[in-house]
Amino acid sequence: MTMLMRTDPFRDLDRVFEQLTGTASRPTVMHVDAERDGDWFNVHFDLPGVDPDSIELTVERNVLQVKAQRQRTSKDGVETVISERPMGLFSRQLFLADTLDTDRLEASYDNGVLELRIPVSEKAKPRKISVGSGNSGRKQINA
């Protein structure tokens, strides 16, 4: 089973520009791991410090989109000395294979990690097909 991820060749250039200017021209990317575990496809997104209520998860056809927001809290009389952690909107799109059942997708958020569990669809699971012999033993295969 394969899953295609949208890549952005300009992401590193944008990141350097944002660090130099202190501006965010586009949503910050979130890091992701994906794995197949038997009949499940698991995807883990790093989103430390994100309020779970800010996470927006949508699936349209086979495109999974995750958006989340992390905001810096400011206090009166407190001066920021170092500010390196990315803030603002985080976004990621994944193109999922047709072999995944996105109608039964499960999502949870714990310790800064958004975990998605997507079952492999029944039609994509391996199955045994019996083979008959001769004309009398022919069996029709409905796939």
UniProtKB/TrEMBL annotation:
Protein name as catalogued: SHSP domain-containing protein
What family does the entry list?
Answer: Belongs to the small heat shock protein (HSP20) family.
Give start and end of each SHSP domain: 23-134
Query: According to its UniProt record, what is one Pfam family this protein matches?
Result: HSP20
Matches recorded under PANTHER family: HEAT-SHOCK PROTEIN 20 FAMILY MEMBER
Source organism per UniProt:
Dactylosporangium matsuzakiense
